[in-house]
Each structure stands twice: as C-alpha cells, then as structure tokens.
Amino acid sequence: MGNAEFDVLRPGSGGRRYIHIHGNEFTAREVLRDAAAGLSGPLLMVRGDTRNVQIEGLLQDPNRMFSHEGASVNLRKLNPSASEAQIAKVLERLDADLPALLKELLPAEGELVLSVHNNSEGYNIQSEIPISEAHHLPTPAEPNNFFLTTDPKDYQILAAGPYNAVLQSKPPAPDDGSLSRLCAVKGIRYANLEAKLGEKARQREMLDWAQKSLPAKHGM
195: which of 2, 128, 203, 219 fits an S-S bond (Cβ 3.0–4.6 Å)? Predict the structure, then answer.
C-alpha cells in the first residue's frame, strides 16, 4: 500500500483477520508474534519500526490511508510544505493500491477484523468517548487499555466484560481515513485492541480474552 509493506502470516484459517499497522507500536508487535501460532486467521504485520511511512517522498500514517479524504487530510498535516502536485501523486497511488490491501484484509460477511495497537500519554479511551455511541468503563484507572468496536453485538459482549470499551458504528464526520471508520461504513465487524506501550502482559491478557469472547463469526 504505497510504500507501506506488510508481511502476511497465515497461522491458521478462521473467521478473523489480524493487523498490526504502526511499526513503532513494539509491544503490540511482540504480543502478536508470540500469539501467532494460536490465531485463527491471517495476520498482516507492517514492516519497519516507524509510525509513518514514506510514499513518493511524503510522510503518511498507514492508518489514515483507507479513504481518499482521510489520506488527503493526513498528507497535508504531516507534509505542510508539500505541493498540491506531490499530494495528488501520492493520493493517486494510494487509490490504486487500496483494493489489493482490502482484498487481503477484509473478511467474509459476519467475520471479524482485529487490529492491535499501542498508545502513550497523549491518547486513551477519553479521546474516543465523545465520538462514541456508548462506552463501558470498568477500569477507569487504566484509560489507555481499551477496546473500540464498530459492531453493536460485539459491544454487548465487551460491555459485559472486564475491560474498557467504546462503540463506534456511526462515526461522525470528518472522515479520518482510519480502518475502523472504513469498517463501520461497510458494516464490517472491527475491534481495535488498545494497550499502553510497554504493558505486554496486559495486552496479551486482553488478546486472549478477545479470542475467547468475540466469536469468529456472528450468525446473520
């Protein structure tokens, strides 16, 4: 996808797809690699160790390239001195590359995409609550550790569980180009597992719980 390259690990076949999309989120990478043999579906892992990638000489957040509008805003934010011609060239490439990535990543109807992320002090569940339809906050002292889902049925499961969670099945404008928003718009089950960078044991615990609690496929 542009210059964002992904290794595709296939530890098994099943109703889930897994993705690690920011190279500097090292804890999430370690957790997924350690758990890979037990995952029930393909795992896509971004190459490199930086958050942003270079595309045609410009920086781009790989989780802001899932829509033309979101990619455009992000390119201008990260590359304030770029010309319109440079931005247009990157957008043209992203538009051309996106279908192949989505073919590999998006699951069959009723199946789940699970994205595993890390965060730090500047971002936590309180950043998401104002733009969410519902939230579950059983551990307010751990705001960095939470799930974000686009599916109301999955949210019901998360809201009965021990971890913080938000529901975003109808995210408000503007389109930020994220994978969660794309899945919400397309009606695809998506869950984002967020944990504070460095909290490996907690993130593995949350992943194991999600594996057991969120079904690989909802009945239609």
Answer: 203
